[in-house]
Design a protein that fits this description.
This protein has 333 residues and is of the alpha/beta class. The protein has two domains: 2-107, RutC-like (60s Ribosomal Protein L30, Chain: A), CATH 3.30.1330.40; 117-332, Rossmann fold. Helix content is 42%, strand content 21%. The chain has eleven helices and 13 strands. It has helices at 15-32, 56-62, 128-139, 146-160, 166-174, 203-212, 216-232, 242-246, 260-273, 280-296, 318-332; strands spanning 2-9, 40-47, 69-74, 85-92, 101-102, 117-121, 142-145, 178-183, 186-191, 194-195, 235-239, 252-257, 309-312. The strands form three sheets. It has a five-stranded mixed beta sheet, covered by helices on one side. It has a five-stranded parallel beta sheet with strand order 7-11-6-12-13, sandwiched between helices. Helix 3 crosses helix 11 (318-332) and helix 5 runs parallel beside helix 7 (216-232). Bound molecules: 2'-deoxycytidine-5'-monophosphate (DC). Residues 124, 146-147, 150-151, 206, 209-210, 213, 239-242, 290, 294 line the site of 2'-deoxycytidine-5'-monophosphate (DC). 2'-deoxycytidine-5'-monophosphate binds at residues 124, 146-147, 150-151, 206, 209-210, 213, 239-242, 290, 294.
């Protein structure tokens, strides 16, 4: 048995508004929790005392919820309470976590349930993945590194000797066994059952990822996977096309950049820490080549979304970037 909560508001105390708000709320609860009418045992409804023109339980019956027990009652008058509000408790058969639904003015009652997405786009080495990880920690939300997914596609193509051509890639990507798992708060990229999180960071995989990400079949599959993950929870995604193509409706969008010499320095330090010998001039050239590939490809090129805020991190520390973006988000929430 599951107990599912919900609430909504009406703009005025009239029968039509109450019918429409209750119908909308119950249908959403039914849909979000994958319920059939027969799963629902009973629905308890309450309304604030400023609603007197129509029984919410009657609205529920009229909306099709007629095979379960329905009951509505008026709430006491509480000072400062959200006005014109209808609350529900749905008791339903079935297992799993209940997905509570708060609509219209009532969405603000449970800010913790409100899903939101932060889109961070920008060229490689701009610091966006470090910033994304930190933001995910600060807001206690999921971080999805979308670049890791393109890297996994590249690794698969490299290790199977697949040609970088649409026709050859289609069956490879169609059968791709790629899973994104989270353990100890870290993303793990699992390809064919093997954790390749480290292997995909190799420099030759970086260049191959940039090339493979230009193919339509690759982007289609990765974007589908990314949207599915993002639809489940509040999250921060970093990549090249998050604000323009993957989540164009993301609540918060930032385009993080830095000049190529600074980016080469940052990437070089990361690679040195992992034990790679680094030629900084070559690294800068490679970064510029990847920039060219990523921003000139036909499908979803690297580009700032019109509504994304540009953040140039060349002269900023990571702490400064995180503090700046966090403040911007908090101002809007
Ligand atoms: O962020 P990264 O360096 O790990 O990304 C590797 C490559 O994947 C990058 O050169 C471009 C591509 N990519 C993309 O096209 N779209 C994304 N959302 C993320 C990465």
């Amino acid at each position: 048995m599951r107990a599912i909560r919900g609430a909504t508001t009406v703009s005025c105390d009239c029968a039509e508004e109450i019918r429409s708000a209750v119908g909308e709320l119950l249908c959403k609860i039914k849909e979000e929790n994958s319920l059939s009418y027969s799963d629902i045992v009973c629905i308890l409804l309450s309304n604030t005392s400023d609603i007197v023109s129509f029984y919410p339980a009657k609205a529920a019956r009229e909306a099709g919820f007629s095979s379960c027990a329905l009951y509505s009652s008026a709430e006491p008058e509480i000072a400062g309470a959200l006005p014109l509000c209808i609350r529900v408790m749905v008791l339903a058969e079935g297992e799993g976590a209940a997905k509570h639904v708060y609509l219209r003015g009532a969405a603000n009652l449970r800010k913790d349930l409100k899903k939101f997405a932060i889109a961070l786009d920008g060229p490689s080495g701009s610091g966006k993945s470090t910033v994304a990880k930190r933001l995910a920690e600060e807001f206690d939300i999921l971080y999805l590194d979308t670049g890791a997914m393109y890297r996994a596609c590249a690794l698969k193509a490299l290790s199977t000797g697949c040609a970088f051509e649409e026709k050859a890639l289609e069956p490879l990507i169609g059968a791709l066994d790629l899973r994104i798992l989270y353990r100890d708060g870290r993303q793990h990229t699992v390809l064919d059952g093997k954790d390749v999180s480290e292997e995909i960071r190799r420099p030759e995989v970086s260049m191959a990822a940039s090339k493979i990400s230009a193919f339509a079949c690759v982007r289609k599959k990765m974007v589908e996977m990314q949207r599915k993950i993002a639809a489940e929870q509040s999250c921060v995604l970093d990549g090249r096309d998050i604000g323009t193509a993957v989540l164009p409706d993301a609540e918060f969008k930032f385009f993080i950049t830095a000049d190529s010499a600074t980016r080469a320095k940052r990437r070089g330090r990361e690679l040195e820490e992992k034990g790679y010998a680094v030629d900084y001039e070559r690294l800068r050239e490679e970064i510029e080549e990847r920039d060219r590939n990523d921003s000139t490809r036909k499908i979803s090129p690297l580009r700032r979304a019109d509504d994304a805020e540009l953040v140039d991190t060349s002269a900023m520390t990571i702490d400064e970037v995180v503090a700046y973006i966090k403040k911007k988000i908090q101002e809007k929430v």
